[in-house]
Amino acid sequence: MAVEPTGAALAGLSTHTPDGPFVMLNLLRFAPGGRASYAEYSRRAAEFLHRYGGALLYAGDGGTPLVAEHGQAWDAVLLVRYPSREAQGRMVADPGYQEVTALRSGALTEAMLQPTVPWEGGQTH
After folding, report:
1. How confident is the model at residue 122 (pLDDT cuts 50, 70, 90)?
2. Lower CB density within 10 Å: C or N end of the chain?
3. Dist. CA 108–CA 121, nearest whole Å
């Protein structure tokens, strides 16, 4: 199961995501004991997120799905805002950030990362 984005997926981000701010949807499934490792990753990665202008908008536990196929529940959901594709790319390429990614990889059995961009005309209510 996928945990880390491939080089091709990261390269595709610049092709399929307009330049400018975007929010990355993170759906996470933890390995046994992985929450503690992910918490340490989050604590250490926050420095890099801040350095490159990003922000954690939301982090929470996944509840029981109301609409989903069996096995599609996620343990946690995060929304992370990045100021641009370029800033996100510089962050993930930062050698210091690369050192902490092993904590994330070891904490998860599966992840889904999906960049999102606002609908034209702003937010819906």
Report:
1. low
2. C
3. 36
